[in-house]
Amino acid sequence: MRSIVLAAVLVPAPALGQEVLLRLGDSLPGGAALGPGTWLESVRVAPSGAYAVSGRADGDDVSFFWGSFDGGPGTLLRSEATIGALTQLSFDVRFGMNDAQLAYSARSMDGAGGPLRAGIWVDDAAVLQEDEPAPGTGKFVSSLVFASGITTGGDWTGAVALSDTPGGGSFDRALYRGNDLLYATGDAVPSAPAPLGDGIGPGTFSPNGEHHIVSTDVEPTPGQPRLILLRDGAAFELGGALVARDVPVPPSIGGRNGEGWFRFFARDVNDRGSYALTGDTNAGAGEDGFLLRDGVMFAREGDTLDGVTLSGRFTSVALNSSGEMAFVCGLLGSEVLFFEDRVVLRSGDAIDWDGDGVPEPTRQ
Fold first, then answer.
1. What secondary structure letter does DSSP report for 251?
2. pLDDT tens figures, 63-87
């Protein structure tokens, strides 16, 4: 497994050390150097070892994906292009990949000087575009379109806003896996306290697409929570209670002193259905952050792991196929990367910038 530099974060293979794959100053094939104005935004790694980074190049201001489908040395995978009548103008930071395909959101111009359209793409195919019929809803795709990934079987996943007419306003939301409609505004979902609202998110899916976790709101109902999570077709429950804003966190899973769930940040789920979730409870500052794995609190803000006292948010988390976990925790203005309960990298650590096997103290 290789390592990927993404902005100031290095994501390494814990047992094999780090290897810088892309850095500012490198040149993309057929493109300008990645100068100081370049943005390196999101990173994805597929179970096969395929990897990609999204970014926006300095100088020509063009969105791109860089990486490798076979886990080898990286190259330019794709950048903005004219495909049929659509000229792509920008890529959203959200995207997904398997070992042969990229799924992503892009804004495009339809024809010479034509209207701008948001849409979801798989490689060169515009699979769902603004103003087209939204499958299974009787409505049309509106201007808010978010691709979240692509399964190992090639099904794209993503959320779209819906309107009653082409070009109309955005009122409802729908979540898809390929052309299969999973959830839409107004749906009654098992164990949910009310029909789904208009805040259905893009969701996090397992690589095979069989498992997912989605954040959403529900229609206002007196005495019931508004912000909930969905998991594999039903409202997410733990310890006999909803995982939803202001609902008490069960002591059986690690809840403290009657605290309630408050907000949810990063999440991941693997093909076996194992999951990890980060967020805050409504406990006091300095003790509200949490990292949950498979229904049990793994770590809390204020805990000590590998000699580090955890402080701030758990900002990202990832699971491998065995359920082992890597995560990042903020720490008083810096960040620490953990693999399980072991520190792997922290802000300020020296890295091997030039690939000679020796960390450069000036590169941190």
1. G
2. 888 889 998 888 889 889 999 999 9
* Three-state DSSP class for residue 146: strand
- One-letter identity of residue 311: S
How far apart CA 184 and CA 99 sit, in angstroms, is 30
Q: Which two tokens stand for residue 43?
A: 């990173």
Roughly how many angstroms between the first and final C-alpha of the chain, as a whole number?
A: 21
User: What distance lies between CA 317 and its chain's CA centroid?
Assistant: 10
Residue 181, both tokens: 């409609």
Q: How many Cα atoms sit within 13 Å of 331 on the Cβ side?
A: 21
Q: How far apart (Å, rounded) are the C-alpha atoms in residues 303 and 327?
A: 15
Distance, CA of 157 to CA of 97 (rounded, Å): 11
CA-based R_g, the chain, Å: 21
Amino acid at 207: P
Q: Rounded to an integer, what distance in angstroms lies between the CA atom of residue 78 and that of residue 295?
A: 39
310 contacts 300 by C-beta, under 8 angstroms: yes
Q: Where are the beta strands (DSSP E) in 218-333?
A: 227-231, 234-235, 237-238, 241-242, 261-269, 275-281, 289-293, 296-300, 304-305, 308-309, 314-319, 325-331
Confidence of residue 33 (pLDDT cuts 50, 70, 90): low
Return the C-alpha torsion angle 302, 308, 314, 315, nearest 10.
150
